[in-house]
Hints:
- The complex is a heterodimer.
- Chain A has helices at residues 4-15, 19-30, 33-49, 60-76, 88-98, 105-113, 118-127, 130-141, 146-153, 157-188.
- By secondary structure, chain A is mainly α.
- In chain A, helix 2 packs parallel to helix 4 and helix 4 (60-76) crosses helix 9.
- Chain A starts with a helix and ends with a helix.
- The longest helix of chain B has 22 residues, at 85-106.
- Chain B is elongated and about 95 Å long.
- The model of chain B is unreliable at 106-122, 217-221 and 280-290 (pLDDT under 50).
- Chains A and B meet through helix 1, helix 2, helix 3, helix 5 and helix 6 of A and helix 1, helix 3 and helix 4 of B.
Amino acid sequence: MEQALPKHKNFETEMLPHMAALYNFALRMTGDPDDAKDLVQETYMKAYRFFDKYSQGTNAKAWLFRIMKNSYINRYRKESKEPDKIDYDEIKDFYATVKDSAVDTNDLQEKIFGNLFEDEIAEALQELPEDFRTVVILCDIEGYTYEEIADFIEIPIGTVRSRLHRGRKMLRSMLRDYALARGFKDVED
Amino acid sequence: MSGAVDNQLLRDENKDFHNHIEICGSCRDEYELEKLTKAYLKKRITFVDVPYDVEKAIMAQFSSKVSKRKDHGFISRLFSNRAIQPILAVGLMIFVGIALIFANRANIILPNLQQPAGVGLAQQDALSLAETNFQDVLSGKFKPEITAAAMSDVASYINQNAGFAMQLPSVASADWIGGLVSNYDGNKMAQVVYKMGEDYIYICSFAKSVVVSPPEAKVASGQKKIFLPLDCTKAIENRGWFWSENSNGDTQAAWTSDDHVCIATSNLEKNDLVAYLSPSTGDSKETAKP
Lengths: 189, 290
């Protein structure tokens, strides 16, 4: 009983402050609030169980992300491969035609992607293969550095960089498709 | 390319990259488009606060792990040792057999709720304790020391024996109201039962000084024996009261006053229970003052 208290206190101090970051990551990875809740709960359950293996004072957030990533893989990993039909050039051609007429960045964004709803963007994110989605979420939404991402998911920084480039490239084409499907083709005409 | 978009290139790399895109339209467009995608995503995806129920579930899970953890002492390790389990089982059977023979000879009557469930534990979750006792109410094991039709009689009894003025609803439609003050590991526990046909409301109350919320409950071993789960404490702090439907399908509510904590348990639906507990229904709350 005496041993439980320091563990409890340390766990509370080191791990619980990262709940919001984990929940947001889980939400973007799964695209579903209930799944995100389950994933966060499972992560904390495992973290508590294996807290003895955590070296205190090291990167708690990275440790939690790794647990969550493994839990996610065990629960949700499907055969994920790059979508078959992506026209990477279409959007680039379109960009070349509209970039000069755009007033500012916001205008340009709207011309290309339209005013998509947040859940449409989240849906497009969901279509990204998991490896690419992970780095895009961590970098572009959560705002982590390459070093942090490399630490979280245990891949070299060069891989983070290349996955980001390909992930964003795929995503922008998907967003563009969503925008076109919602009638933003008019903008192009 | 991404390194440039994310400002993660070294100074020389960055300079080389920008020199290149000065003369390469294709790379420049690619770079601009990638920056645009990143900015769009950042702008349109909002950071979500952790919903209260998620936080609550994790804290509850965490609290239960902590309370389980405290049992991992010598005794629990002994009982979980597979090699010793058969020996312990045989020993237990012999002990129970002897105890039963002895009890029959001495004509011992097993104690009822005068000694509430959970006595002897280092800590007791007040909600679980209330539910255990409520089951005794339903099964008829609960033996109140006073039974009356009027709340004031029960209130006087509680006040004289519990040492705190318990706020109780005065339910005019009750068939009877029962009261019992028992000693719970050196702490007074006031209990009141309302019977309305097939429905019951059981309210137990402790002085605030003996009820704590985890993790303090762990620190206070030997002194503070009863705790409120963290979600319950949080709800009381935020809303003034807590309610939940437990795994038996019973409704539980908890609230605090200046000097004591009350937990109500009932087979009524939440809204009906709230109506009985609320002063606005005509069944007004009455302070158990002499």
